[in-house]
Amino acid sequence: MIAPWSTAGTGQAGSVAAPRESADGEAQAGTTVDHLTETYQAHYRSLLGLAALLLDDTASCEDVVQEAFIRVHSARKRVRDPQKTLAYLRQTVVNLSRSTLRRRILGMKLLSKPMPDMASAEEGAYDRIERDELKKALRGLQRRQREVLVLRYFADMTESQVAEVLGLSLGSVKAYGSRGIAALRVAMEDPS
């Protein structure tokens, strides 16, 4: 897997961000290209899974994750603490997924013919049906409830990490999470 900013195959080595100096002469280190490449290799799949829970097609998920890495690469000098690179990437994936959904909603409003919402007959395997039911139930939740549940249970983040990524208080994360789980239970039990 080659990082989207990699210079592999061009004969050039990837550059490492050199420490820069602030106005008062102190060295400030940004996230290096090497660290970002390692993060890409280690967390690409988990970030793709995060995007897949917020979006519904593989191509869009891959686009969102690639764009997130490119944006973090472009802004790597602003991520002063390399330990926060993954959190910054998760936040970027969530934000780009939101933007993708907003563009889709606008596109659907402009389309005269609605998109079919039923899966084809070839996709009728039992596990796929269960996954589709869960996705449908997740889409029925309020946006914040869905985001909290996806980050908490599918991205395996702690409540405090979710609060940081979404910019919410810890109490809000707990409230959205418990209300979201209750709504999911009702939606999954309803046969209609």
TrEMBL record:
Q: What processes does the entry annotate via GO biological process terms?
A: DNA-templated transcription initiation
What is stated as this protein's family in its record?
Belongs to the sigma-70 factor family. ECF subfamily.
Give the matching Pfam families: Sigma70_r2, Sigma70_r4_2
One GO MF annotation is: DNA binding
- State the NCBIfam families in the record: SigE-fam_strep, sigma70-ECF
Protein name, UniProt field = RNA polymerase subunit sigma-24
- RNA polymerase sigma factor 70 region 4 type domain boundaries: 132-184
User: Which terms are listed as keywords in the entry?
Assistant: DNA-binding, Sigma factor, Transcription, Transcription regulation
Q: Where is the RNA polymerase sigma-70 region domain?
A: 40-104
- Give the start-end ranges of region Disordered: 1-30
